């Protein structure tokens, strides 16, 4: 075993944690970066970015189909999966240049392997190339993300199903699937359903909840459900996948209705497991450092992103809460400022955490749903508008009388307080952003100026709102 000298900062994970690492390097500190996989984390390699590289071609297909309403008809689209995939992998392969840049960075030790705690100050790294090394650090940042949850389905291992990790890996398809069964009705599930149904696959989504996108505004979820069904996606909601069989190259998913007990079989070329993620706190062996975890394995933090061990910090998916890259980026920037700028400490503010599902139509939200407001006993009124009620909307072919028109729903509380905003429809992820700024502006947190407000608010990633928000990145 080789022992590496002591460093000022050690970072486990090369996703959003790189923001903190860069701030430390600018201060001239000695640092270590530990990464077991491709550089750039989930977002670059198997999450938001490559997924959206597939979403946009799917969007084009659906928009072309809507053209008939406007008197513009297109022939059936010719899907060149090879060219689509080439663009996807060109983007993913940015991790190669990213890795090389860090390997050549002064004052930085790069260790490619799995990092885990030995004690509060010591990390052991099982190197990918073989062997083990250890190092100690004054400050440690755990930004090691999460991984897919594999539900207890009979025959799952034998069927060798997809997850979002291996889809953007050695299991990436050479052609569009003829048929795809998706287990899970969350964001990953509905985005993949949109992608492959638009590109020609027969898609079935199997979800335990009675609606897609559980936890989101019910009206928004219902619109997504109705449009996916209209676009040919089969939905088995309120169903639990109980076993998977593989025979003659075809996979067969048997699900059971949770209300009636009746079983339904779905045959597909491939099966994607999209039933949630779990924090990687077990992989980093957080217990060896005495780090407190919640009941789901998420690392517990205070308002300054500290664990109960003062020199150990964490951010992103390993906390198990709000698994969005823009939330992780926000936490990383806050931590970089708190640790390495000579300014008053800022507390993390989760007043306005936006989300988006890039399906057809897009869905975006910030703040409370109507159900949450009711459960919390908060008085509110609902304001709404439809795409079909504005000139830009009906110029695009929407009518307020049609079910697919899309809408905005705003929950307003006492003293004109914005409680929650929900948009379902064209470019919802961009349309929600002004409300993020407004909710932050009136949250009680002090920003000092409009520019600081924009800089310190979360911007949905990836969305067109990043164009306007990131103009102030270097201000």
- Briefly note the CATH topology name of the largest domain: FAD/NAD(P)-binding domain
Kindly report the average pLDDT value: 94
Radius of gyration: 23 Å
Distance between the termini: 46 Å
Q: What count of structural domains? A: 3
Describe the strand arrangement of the main beta sheet, using strand numbers.
2-3-4-5-6
Question: Quick one: CATH superfamily of the largest domain?
Answer: FAD/NAD(P)-binding domain
The CATH class name of the largest domain reads Alpha Beta
Count of beta strands: 21
The shape, in one word, is globular
Uncertain runs are: none
> Percent helix among the residues?
25-40%
- Kindly estimate the percentage of residues that lie in beta strands according to DSSP: 15-25%
The computed structural class is alpha/beta
CATH architecture field of the largest domain: 3-Layer(bba) Sandwich
Number of helices, counting only DSSP H or I runs of 4 residues or more: 16
Main sheet characteristics: 5 strands, mixed, barrel
Describe this structure in words.
By secondary structure, the chain is an alpha/beta fold. It folds into 3 domains: 2-43 and 90-148 and 278-340, FAD/NAD(P)-binding domain, CATH 3.50.50; 156-275, FAD/NAD(P)-binding domain; 355-472, Enolase-like, domain 1 (2-Layer Sandwich). 29% of the residues lie in helices and 25% in strands. It has helices at 17-26, 41-45, 48-66, 81-92, 94-103, 156-159, 164-167, 187-198, 218-230, 325-340, 370-375, 391-395, 428-431, 433-441, 450-455, 465-469, and strands at 2-3, 7-12, 31-35, 108-117, 122-127, 132-142, 146-148, 179-183, 202-207, 234-237, 239-247, 250-257, 263-268, 270-273, 277-279, 312-314, 355-357, 363-367, 381-386, 407-412, 418-424. Strands 2-3-4-5-6 form a 5-stranded mixed β-barrel. It has a 5-stranded antiparallel β-sheet with strand order 17-18-21-20-19, with helices on both faces. The longest helix is centred in the N-terminal third of the chain and has 19 residues, at 48-66. The mean pLDDT is 94.
């Amino acid at each position: 075993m080789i022992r590496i000298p002591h460093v000022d900062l050690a970072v486990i994970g090369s996703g959003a944690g790189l923001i903190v690492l860069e701030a430390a390097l600018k201060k001239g500190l000695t640092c270590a970066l530990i990464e077991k996989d491709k550089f750039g984390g989930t977002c670059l390699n198997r999450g938001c970015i490559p997924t959206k590289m597939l979403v946009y071609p799917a969007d084009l297909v659906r928009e072309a189909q809507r053209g008939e309403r406007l008197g513009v008809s297109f022939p059936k689209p010719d899907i060149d999966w090879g060219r689509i995939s080439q663009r996807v992998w060109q983007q993913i392969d940015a991790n190669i240049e990213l890795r090389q840049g860090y390997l050549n960075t002064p004052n930085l030790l790069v260790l490619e392997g799995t990092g885990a705690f030995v004690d509060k100050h010591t990390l052991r790294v099982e190197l990918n190339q073989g062997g083990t090394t250890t190092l100690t650090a004054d400050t440690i940042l755990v930004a090691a993300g999460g991984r897919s949850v594999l539900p207890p389905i009979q025959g799952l291992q034998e069927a060798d199903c997809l997850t979002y990790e291996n889809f953007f890996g050695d299991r990436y398809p050479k052609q569009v699937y003829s048929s795809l069964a998706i287990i899970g009705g969350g964001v990953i599930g509905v985005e993949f359903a949109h992608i492959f149904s638009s590109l020609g696959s027969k898609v079935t989504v199997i979800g335990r909840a009675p609606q897609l996108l559980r936890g989101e505004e019910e009206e928004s979820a219902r619109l997504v459900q109705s449009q996916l069904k209209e676009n040919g996606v089969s939905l088995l909601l309120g169903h639990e996948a109980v076993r998977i069989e593989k025979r003659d190259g075809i996979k067969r998913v048997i699900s059971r209705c949770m209300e009636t007990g009746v079983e339904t079989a779905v045959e597909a070329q491939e099966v994607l497991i999209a039933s949630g993620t779990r924090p990687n706190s077990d992989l980093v062996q957080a217990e060896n450092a005495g780090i407190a975890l919640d009941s789901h394995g998420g690392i517990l933090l205070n308002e300054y992103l500290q664990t109960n061990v003062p020199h150990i910090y964490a951010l992103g998916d390993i906390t198990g809460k709000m698994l969005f890259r823009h939330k992780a980026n926000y936490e990383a920037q806050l931590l970089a400022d708190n640790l390495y700028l000579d300014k008053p400490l800022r507390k993390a503010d989760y007043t306005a955490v936006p989300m988006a599902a890039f399906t057809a139509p897009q869905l975006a939200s910030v703040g409370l749903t109507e159900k949450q407001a009711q459960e919390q006993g908060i008085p509110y009124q609902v304001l709404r508008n439809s795409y079909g009620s504005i000139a830009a909307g009906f110029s695009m072919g929407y009518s307020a009388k049609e079910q697919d028109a899309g809408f905005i729903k705003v929950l307003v509380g006492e003293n004109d307080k914005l409680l929650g905003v929900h948009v379902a429809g064209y470019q919802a992820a961009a349309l929600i952003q002004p409300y993020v700024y407004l909710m932050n502006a009136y949250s009680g947190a002090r920003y000092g100026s409009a520019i600081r407000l924009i800089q310190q608010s979360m911007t949905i990633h990836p969305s067109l709102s990043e164009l306007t928000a990131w103009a102030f990145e270097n201000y």
